[in-house]
Amino acid sequence: MISICLLCAGVASAQKSLLSQDEHNKYIYYEVVDAPGTTTDSLKKNADGFIANTYPKEKPLKSDNFSINIKDKFLTYSSLTKHETGEIACALTIECKDAKYRYWITDFVYTPYEKNRYGNFVPVTGIDLPLEKATTKISQKDLDALLEQTGAFCKQTGEKLKKYMKEGDKVKKTDQQPVKKIVTDKW
Amino acid sequence: MKKLILLLIAVTGFTLAKAQDTVKTTSDAPLVIYGSVDTYYKDDFSGHANIPTYFASDNNSISIGMIDLGLKKTVGKASFVGELGFGPRGQFQSTPNGDGSEANAGNSFHIQNLYVSYNLTDKFNLTAGYMATFIGYEVISPTGNFNYSTSYLFGSGPFQNAGFKATYAFSDKVSLMAGIFNDNWNVYTSTHDVSTFGAQLMLAPVKGWTAYLNLATGPSSGTIFDLTTAYQITSAFKLGLNAATFTPAHGGGGYDGVALYPQIALSKAVTFGLRGEYFESKSTDENPKSHVTGLTATLNVKAGPLTFIPEVRLDHKSDDFTTFTKSDGTLTNSASQFVLAAVYAF
Fold first, then answer.
1. Chain B residues close to A82, C-beta within 8 Å
2. Are A8 and B22 in contact (CB < 8 Å)?
3. What pTM, to 2 d.p., does this model score?
4. Does residue A121 lie in a domain region?
């Protein structure tokens, strides 16, 4: 039983270790994915489709024949009371080649939130902290919590991306499966 | 029993692990609980309380502020916020007792915020209920202020406005709120009608700088113009400003005032700030014009969710502004106090 507890605690803290540091010492979530039998064009088409479906209101920062780059952000929450503690902006890049593609999420910048007079949590104006330098303003414990949530977000985004890159537009269709019909006058 | 406890721990651990696996990226967050508790000790150097501003009111006493407890929930475009205050700061010092009827005269409703809100579009929001006022720099919740004691401007302006408001965001840099509110400030129920008009223009001209131009005017509540602005000039230095002028609906008087709030972060745990205020009561048929200046030096020392707030305050007034007395009871125009407060936010 104790080992189950330790396992569960381990799963929670494992998200942080999903992040690496690149050659500029910036946190990065990076993965190369093999896609045998595919071409650069077909992979790029799926990458464009993923971006268009996931970020319908955002314009890519950069897009050419084999890569696309877009800004993203996600909210962070306190562990027990589940109110917003801030938001983390980041950038997602997808690069395609024949039979494989790679993607990475980096440029993590944390903006802390504060409670305003109406009970809403809103960004603290003028404070943007790159995660690599965040300990100049926040404690290591708070940074660890942010890194865990960042790791979980990247993993979740990566899984969605990989599904879309594999299945293309079918992802949308399978997500909206019709309700199965039952005819009750037959056994 | 031991097995049951271990099973509960395992289930809890699994739930937490699972929760961290999924990042919420939509606005449909779970029911959110937030709030704070605060407690303080004050020593007025005269030996008795002199400075009449709100909160930190008890002298030579370890006293409580309030437990502030908020709940909020958003589903799709609809939200609610309910925020309750228990304790002197959250009850008789900042909210009305009852709804004006005799039966409820001694009955605190504890309500700091109680409103519902609906986003008609991404840019257009409608909100109705009993809300913290949109006027002013300082707020009731101790987590929203840098200084623990409050300014004369804060105590003289509205605390809450009940009403209906619409807010349109033209961009990230400009938004406009307009609304109609109960005839008087700080009431759960209007005395006669819903006749205070309120408006707020928000401007964010450069990154880190926000300014709010506020107006509330009505035949019962009078007219207040207010400017509230803050500029995070560097990552360590922030400058805030509040200026207001108020004219009552009847009888003359009112006030003008300005307060400046420079703050500098000395380390990630310690920030030092000043509040310099000039506040003037306008003359009436009975009373001449009078004024007070206040200088407050405050440290915020953070230890996780807990903030320690040591503070020294020196006020100096003109002859006709309220009454300050020395330790022997003789009149004086100066008062000073030390406050040590602790605020825990969750």
1. 29-33
2. no
3. 0.86
4. yes
Chain A's closest residue to B19, CA to CA, is: A12
Q: How many CA atoms lie within 13 A of B316 on its CB side?
A: 2
In 10 A of CB B44, how many CB atoms? 20
CATH domain B2-7+32-345 topology: Porin (2.40.160)
Give the integer Cα–Cα distance in Å for B262 and B277.
Answer: 12
Strand partners, B274: B297
Residue A8 in this model has a pLDDT that exceeds 90: no
Closest CA to B258 of B279, B238, B231, B289: B279
Task: pLDDT band for B286, please (50, 70, 90 cuts).
Answer: confident
ipTM score assigned to the predicted complex: 0.85
Residues of A in contact with B20 (CB under 8 A): 11-12, 15, 148-149, 152
Q: Does residue A5 sit within a domain? A: no
- For residue A83, give its domain range: 21-172
Going from N- to C-terminal start, the domains of chain B cover 2-7+32-345
Name the phi and psi angles at B295, rounded to 5. -125, 120
Q: State which amino acid sits at residue B30.
A: P
Q: State the total domains in chain A.
A: 1
B35 close to A29: Cβ distance less than 8 angstroms: no
How does pLDDT run across B144-199, given as a tens digit for each residue?
A: 999 999 999 999 999 999 999 999 999 999 999 999 999 999 999 999 999 999 99
Supply the CATH number for residue A97's domain.
3.30.530.80
Query: Quick one: pLDDT at residue A172?
Result: 64
Q: Would you call A82 and B22 a contact, using CB atoms and an 8 Å cutoff?
A: no
